[in-house]
């Protein structure tokens, strides 16, 4: 069993779980049924970039899950004209870290409030019609992390933003990023925490549980290990004769 096969299998499983999460958040509610309860448990969603709509469902269902997921993202980008700000410089990725901001029970997150919160936390509206945190002074390096709508097709259409209501938004950090993984996490977490305050929502981890200190520390350790594994090898000095 090769590492590549294991990676593709993992991404396939994660993709199917994300589709279930989109279905859970996006399906119509029955009369009298409330929104999610803070700290409640639901369908599991793994670390998969929530890109976006039917292209994602097709892309993650194939045998070559990783390549097709990227192709789905590119198809969406082609279908959604707009800024190139936040476009990744490479189609290659091997890890995705996700956080959610969910509305409190009986409430929704509203489009105008999301836009204001994104602006206040330094996010830029751009590629795929979602929000991105870019490298200061170097936007061409691509997104450090991005924020999408959990509802299909996942984007924020500014033409209809006044009417937009959603049960949750998703933060996703796709690695490798233009900065070290741990640095990217240390930018994403405070942004998500601040937006949670501004939106009066609930911050959840990738399994949609209320995120706590223990989980945060675990993710920090995991990303620190990722950075160590992906450090550039030291330069080999020529032997002295």
Tell me what the structure shows.
Essential cell division protein that stabilizes the FtsZ protofilaments by cross-linking them and that serves as a cytoplasmic membrane anchor for the Z ring. Also required for the recruitment to the septal ring of downstream cell division proteins. It is a single-pass type I membrane protein. Belongs to the ZipA family. Interacts with FtsZ via their C-terminal domains. With about 240 residues, this protein is of the alpha+beta class. It has one domain: ZipA, C-terminal FtsZ-binding domain (Cell Division Protein Zipa, Chain: A, 2-Layer Sandwich), CATH 3.30.1400.10. It is about 40% helix and about 15% strand. It has 6 helices and 8 strands, in the order αααββαβββββαβα. A 6-stranded antiparallel β-sheet has the order 3-4-5-7-1-8, covered by helices on one side. A two-stranded antiparallel sheet has the order 2-6. Helix 2 packs antiparallel against helix 3.
In the CATH classification, which architecture applies?
A: 2-Layer Sandwich
- Biggest β-sheet description: 6 strands, antiparallel
Task: List unreliable stretches of 5+ residues.
Answer: 3-14, 19-81
Return the CATH topology. Cell Division Protein Zipa, Chain: A
Roughly how much helix do the residues carry, as a percent range?
25-40%
